[in-house]
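Dear Dr. H.,

I hope your travels went smoothly. While you were away I took the liberty of generating a structure for the chain from your last submission, since the lab meeting agenda had it listed for discussion. I wanted you to have the full record in hand beforehand rather than looking at slides cold. The sequence, exactly as received, is reproduced here:
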Amino acid sequence: MATTTVVSSTWTMNTSAMKLPLALNHHSKTIDAGRNGHTLSCGPLGDILQLSCYHPVHGMVVACPFAQFDGKRFHDPQYVRDYRKRLMNYVRSGAHGFGLIFDGNISNLSAGFLDNQFIQISYSIGDIQFSTKISISDDGCVTQSTVINSESSRPVVLDYILSLQMSVNRASYGQLTEGGPIPIPESKNDFRLSHSGHRWTITNENLDATVDGSLFENGQAVYLGDESLEELVIGEPTTRYLRRKLHILPNQPCTLSATFTLKPGTTASLLPPSLLFPPDGVKGCWKLESNEMSLIIRRNLEYILGNCTFPIEDDAVCFITDHVALPLGWNRDNYWQIRFLLDVYRNLETIAQPETAKAYTQQIRESVKGHLKWVFRKAQRPHGYWHRSYLANGVPKDGPVFQQDQQCYPLLEICDFYAQFPQERAFVESLLADQTIPLILGMLEGHRDSTTGLYITDETPGDDAVEYPFHFSSHVLLWHTIQSLSSLYKSFPTITSVSHTALDSLATQIKAATVKNFVGAHPKTKETLFAYLTDGAGEHTFYHDANDIPTLFALEWGFLSTPSLLSTWKRTMNFGVSTLNDGGYYADGEFGGLGSVHTKGPWPLGYAQEYVYASLVGDIAKKNDAWRRIKGSMFWDGLFPEAVDCNTGDCVSKAWFSWPGSMIGSALLRFGIKPAVKAAI
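The corresponding predicted structure, in token form, is as follows:
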């Protein structure tokens, strides 16, 4: 009789035995994928840490292995920060999520992507090899499929666990600068099995959302138990998990597959779904050197389109800033995400092989057009203006806070869209024929100071209250937006609700008022700079923030029309990346750089500003140093956090944040990348 080897499993992984590759040890984070408004985050071994999907009432709902955000602690910034870190803590501690789990001493671990819809993970435990593919279907079914091979000459019995420890929650929407919390329905996780015993469901009826799934061994649905195995848990995740044994014969691979579908509603599926297995490769052929620059461009493109775009009704598409920490739509973040997509679009023939270029050409165009439908026709404006941030369903997240720059970005976005897609004339004309743009322009004029000609804002682009009511970079943005709108309306002479002649005059007035009121002498250096804030009566605040991208773009947009203005801008930017910029520039350590008082410390978004500015002024040494810090702060998958440690470059705030990757990707397309036909990255 043959001897059988038993591979045992324990519930808690011995993390000290895990030998992660450098890519996962250095700036480790979740492995993230998404498709068609459904997103996934998993640990390095493929266990699932979060599923999320669009919900027409709540914006976004999630399934995760920990309890829902405490609805009494929205105004506790430290709790908000700690809650945001929970997924990262799972990754870095080795704690398990839900799904298929195998335990033992891990070796030869590697992870990668076919594209943002398919994750590939492989590793070994002794003589057994595990090859996991995780895929997302169009309707949101996540399939976690592991092929198991044994190199042993004897039969092997492998213990494994299907963990169903999870909670169906509403996204927390917890903010550091809370602008009006939305109460969270009480968590109520009701675990049930189907009549056949082959399908499980966890329903939160208070949220009107359900996650369900099945388990398969070699393609056959596994009996999970009878209907008596039910559990109702209030405020905490369910505790269900199934422990099973798998018999593996020499040279006979076995396949385990688990499915998970999170969706609105409380109706469970009756039958196990058909298994979805990923193809050999999709949208993966590039004409790029396989290096950090190409990784940043590819992965940020995939992340934005896969994890940050949520199709809703009527072909509208909401863009969110990230899918974990703060899954909300900000006009500001959305504009720079879309600018990056358009930069990629313009370069697709150069950086991608024909089939890949064709696929992304269509997806980018439809996504950007869909966002214009969303921001103009779905995003609610109960006070007339666009709010600070939005749920994916178009409901404002925050109260009546007027941010000047948030009114400009959708107007600039439609100008950029038509410049890129003139064939969309009929669609653009339909938006111009609506009353939204005249109403927004009127709202902006209602915030114009009659004495100075400047425009009042309640908050900065960092969502922080202003000391003085007038903000410099928002005026540069407003001037550029009004000029761009004027050019757009000239192309549509039948639209008479807005006069391009009046816009030209207004742009001239805005620029004159901005130059007159914001140029001032720094109290220490006595050099004339563009002030960050002013009261319009001679008082100035001198500061520069990683969030103030329009200041950086003053050159490209043509605001600096005289040698004097150009010199003032250079002095302003030089000040911004110096220790004189108190609260904005963090000089200590190998990763010091431009950041923000909003979250103290250097930001990769600030590194992007430094990289672009150095490129514009031809300072190669500073450009290279900014690139060094960009590479050093990058996660293993080419994405970036909000803020990093000055000494290590490691994430200290908000591991999921698409804006810095968008800015860095655009900068590399313009100043860094050198396409070459080589192996696909």
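Two observations you may find useful: Residues 341 and 483 are 23 Å apart (CA to CA). The longest strand covers residues 254-264.

With kind regards,
E. W.
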